[in-house]
């Protein structure tokens, strides 16, 4: 636990615009893949994909900074999974053209978790 806190503290100084842009790009790619494979999860166009990526990245960043909870689906077990589902589901109310059902958010969160596990770095 102490190592995790120390690593998080050490990484806070590493914040850069390049890191944010890579995270946005990763989120956009993962969302597009997830929308393709997940029933009940659809993105109408490229603009909706870009805006949804920005919204999800911003909400994830805020939750991580305020609560310390890693909102990736497998980041903190069931809590991270529930937070990930909530972020995906409530984004539909903020982004026009981003439509997801509750089951779509649950399945999408699982797909995102699998993609995150297979890729280096972290998208969501």
UniProtKB/TrEMBL annotation:
Any coiled-coil regions, as ranges? none
Question: Pfam families from the entry?
Answer: Phage_holin_4_2
Membrane-crossing ranges are 20-38, 44-63, 75-94, 100-119
Keyword annotations for this protein, in alphabetical order, are: Membrane, Transmembrane, Transmembrane helix
The name under which this protein is listed is: Phage holin family protein
Instruction: Tell me which species this is from.
Output: Defluviitalea raffinosedens
């Amino acid at each position: 636990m102490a190592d995790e806190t120390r690593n998080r503290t050490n990484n806070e100084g590493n914040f850069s615009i390049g890191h944010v842009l890579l995270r946005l790009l990763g989120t956009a790619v993962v969302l597009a893949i997830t929308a393709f494979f997940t029933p009940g999860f659809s993105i109408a166009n490229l603009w909706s994909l870009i805006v949804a990526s920005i919204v999800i990245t911003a909400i994830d960043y805020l939750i991580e900074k305020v609560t310390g909870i890693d909102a990736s689906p497998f980041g903190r077990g069931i809590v991270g999974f529930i937070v990930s589902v909530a972020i995906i589901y409530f984004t539909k109310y903020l982004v026009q053209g981003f439509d997801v059902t509750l089951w779509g958010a649950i399945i999408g969160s699982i797909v995102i978790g699998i993609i995150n596990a297979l890729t280096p770095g972290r998208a969501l």
